[in-house]
Structure formats: structure tokens, C-alpha cells
Amino acid sequence: MVVCEVEECKEKAKYGVKQFQASKCKEHKEKGMVAGSKYYCKHNKQKSQCRECGGSAFCKHDKWKNICRKCGGSSFCKHDKLKSQCKECGGSSFCKHEIRKSRCKECGGSELCKHEIQKSRCKECGGSELCKHEIRKSRCRECGGSAFCKHDKQKNQCKDCGSFSFCKHGIRKSRCISCKGKAICSHKNIKNQCLKCVLSEKCKHGLSKISCDICPCYFCIHKLQKYYCSNCTPESNNLCIRRYGTDPILTKDNSRRCEKTKQKKYDSYCTTCFIELFPDDLRTKTAYVTIKENIVRDYLTLEFSDMFTHNKRVSTIGVTSSRYIDFQTEVGDYILCVEVDEYQHLRYDQDDEEERISQIYDHFNKNMIIIRFNPDNYTVNEILMKTPINERLSALDTKISEIILFVKNGGTYDTWLTEIKMFFDDVKKTKKKKPKKKCVGMTRNDNPCKKAAQKDRDYCRYH
To answer: Do 38 and 19 meet the contact criterion of CB atoms below 8 Å apart?
Structure first.
């Protein structure tokens, strides 16, 4: 045992000058002395922790062994998280409020400033993590932030760099349905973007997440995405920029706003507004708009005033649906819908249509009457029928009036869904469905692709 150099001191020498043998005890140590001094290299670092000297603490991937996932680092738990930062394992970094101790406002976290923001990221306090552009240094492109790779993407979001954030399907691990990502709920949606989960769960204040003013929520009280709701965010950048009034293009202080989603290719207008405002534009000639549906809309507006709601999510008082119906209204205890099915919607996926109707029914919780109106040609006894649109609209008017009168007089229908088809083929055309193998790819919204896979492949031609 090496004893302290000070006379009459018999304590063990633990401190010394870096790269030399320990010569002093804790009580007599001098300034600049460190414990385990003989284990320091010429770079003034511990030998095991020095990359230049090939320290034993680093693995072949040039990372600390205990935090390298590829080497099975000992700092990771069974949930593939750092043990101290895993809530499920009771990590020591979390307080009783299940928030990082240092960042918990109620516990007076040490990382928070007087503005209740992380000290290092507070602009008013001049946080050390911020650059001269008032952006986090690591995420500032102008300052050459370390968070960006050579492809000018954030390292943890770059597929080309082999980021561990992506699974074998090329999707974020947390958002991959096939890999059962942690961000996916039981309805196969992203948890915080699933309306069913938001409505069923309660926040820490004992309220529904959608109705709590304190807790952040993806949806508004109208059960729509906040940034797509014209009532909650009338100046949202996701909506069509058209204003209704004396002038077709008005300032934000005048009149009401179009509630449809904007289209980037139509200069932030929706398709319908762009066609109306700029009929001579070259893009108008190739724009797709539901002309036949608009003819039915004009007729119903004329005959039934403001009774029907056209192609909007808001239908009954206080209730909003994420699904669209062409025309809808409330008659007694029923939801009356008029669907304009061009070409009888023969090419539509019937399974998806049934799911759509079922979801709308679950939302309104009312029996439904659907009139399916075909504005195109149809066959009766193998004879092609070309009934003029005026006669069809007149028949539609009669049918709607009959249903309203029937319901108001106390009449009821036997089932929750009553479908009435007008101007459809008298004999349903049945096509032999070949068993199709569906594409295993995912859409941009992280939903499963519904297209058929190519022959002898797992993906469709788009993926």
C-alpha cells in the first residue's frame, strides 16, 4: 500500500498528478491532483476513456460500450431504453408525476429557469444551447449544427445514414403497424391522432382530453384536427384562402372563410374556388371538380332551401364527423343522406364503403336513410337508359319529400340502415373477384396501402 508522503500521515495515498503515481491522501491533496492519477494518458484523459489511445470503454462502433445498442450495452433495459430513462422500469430520472425530475415544474426541477423553461433553451435567459439565430446550436443549419448529416437531414431521421429510428420496412419504428410500434394504438392509428382513443381516455385532471383546456390535444371540441377546423382556427394556414363577400378575394377582417382544405398547386385555394375565381387559368382546364354533384347541390338548395349540408363535416348541432357525405340532414330520429354515385360507384371498394357507413353510424348513433342517386347511364332489361337529368332531379325531389313526410307522421324503418337506389341497373353486375394480395407498403399518413401488390412481389407499383 502506498502511504501519503506527508510526515506522520499513515493514510493511503489516492491522489496524485496525472500520469504519475498517487502520492497524497484526500486530506493532504494539492490543487490539480486527481484520484487514480496513474490511469491518465498523455492526453490528460483516463486511458480507458481516451479514443486516441484506444480506450477499452469504447466498442468497435466508436461508442461507449454500455450505451451501444449494437453491442447490447448494459445501460439499456428490456424495452430498449436507458434504464434510468425508462418509465416502465421505474427509471430514477422520473419523479412521482412521471416527468423528468430536473424538468418537473411541480417538483421545482433544477433545469428550469424563472420563466419555467429549460435554462439552456430559454431565449430571455440567453440559454447556452442557442446560437446567434436564436435556434438550438445543434439544429441550426447556418451554424453547421451537429444534428445534421451529410445529406442535410437530421441524423436520427435519415434513412441513407442507417438511422436506428427506422425499422426494416423503412418506417419509423414507433409508427410501424407491422412492428407494433409504441405510438400505434389498438385501432391501428397513431395514439395522439386517434379520435377514438382521445374520446375514451381521460387526462390527469379527470376530464376528457378533448375538453381539457390545459392538456394539449390533437383534436378540438368539434372532433376535428385543430388546424383543419374553421371554427377553432379561422386563420389556419391549412384552409383555402378565399373569403366570401362582395369581393371574391377579401382581407381576413372581412366576411367568412372557405372551409375546404387548400391545394398547393392551386395557389393555396381549394379546387372549387380556384375554378370559380380563375376560369381562364390553364390549370382550370385540367382541374377535377364534381360537376354532376354540383348540379344536384344547386337543385337541392333551390327546392329545400338550407335543409341539406353539402360535403362538410358539420351536420347535426354539436356533433362533427371526420367522414364526408355528399348531402345530409337530420329528419326526426334519422340521418337522411343523398349520395351522388357517378357511374353507380362500380369501381369503388365495397368493403371500404361499408366501413365508411358503419363509422358514420357509430359517430351519430342514429339510424340512417341513404338515397344513392346515379346521374349517369344505367340498364333496365338489358336496355341502356339515358334519362334526362331534369327528370331524375324531379324524381329525387319526390322521393325526399315522401321520406320526410313518412318520418314526420311517425313512420319507422326496420333496420338501422335503409338504402334507396335511384337509376341503378336492375340486375347487379357481378364480377369474379380474383384473390388479390395487398401491398405491404404504408402511405404518407402511416396507414396500410390498399392497392394490390404486383405479380410475385409484396409491393404495388407505387411503392
So the answer is: yes
Rounded average pLDDT over 27-52: 88
| CATH code assigned at 338 | 3.40.1350
Domain boundary among 237, 269, 286: 286
Counting Cβ atoms within 10 Å, is residue 271 exposed (0-12), middle (13-18) or buried (19+)? buried
Domain membership of residue 327 (yes or no) is: yes
The C-alpha cell of 305 is what? 332551401
Let me know whether 364 and 442 are in one domain.
no
Whether the CA torsion 92, 97, 100, 105 is positive or negative: it is: negative
Torsion angles phi and psi, residue 121, rounded to 5: -115, 10
User: DSSP states of 76-132 as a string?
Assistant: B-TTSSBGGG-TTTT-TTB-TTSSBGGG-TTTT-TTB-TTSSBGGG-TTTT-TTB-T
Same domain, 361 and 278: no
Q: How far apart are CA 329 and CA 337, in angstroms?
A: 7
Q: Using CB atoms within 10 A of its CB, is residue 421 exposed (0-12), middle (13-18) or buried (19+)?
A: middle
For residues 392 and 316, the answer to whether their CB atoms sit within 8 Å is no
pLDDT higher at 394 or 320 = 394
CB 144 within 8 A of CB 136: no
Average pLDDT score, the chain: 83
Provide the domain limits for residue 444.
432-463
Could you report the per-residue pLDDT of 247-278, keeping only the tens digit for each?
Answer: 444 444 455 778 788 888 888 898 888 888 88
Q: How many domains does the chain have?
A: 3
**Same domain (yes/no): 335, 445:** no
In a domain, residue 52? The reply is no
- 279 and 329 assigned to the same domain: no
Copy the grid coordinates of residue 201. 381516455
- Going from the C-alpha of 170 to that of each of 63, 69, 154, 457, the distances in angstroms are 24, 19, 16, 17
Rg (CA), the chain: 33
pLDDT, tens digit, 9 for 90 and up, residues 343-361: 888 878 787 788 888 878 8
C-alpha cell at 230: 374553421
CA atoms of 287 and 295, how far apart (whole Å): 17
Residues 350 and 274 in one domain: no
Tell me the C-alpha distance between 446 and 108, whole Å: 38
Q: Decide if 437 contacts 453 (C-beta within 8 A).
A: yes
Same domain, 259 and 301: no
Residue type, 459: Y
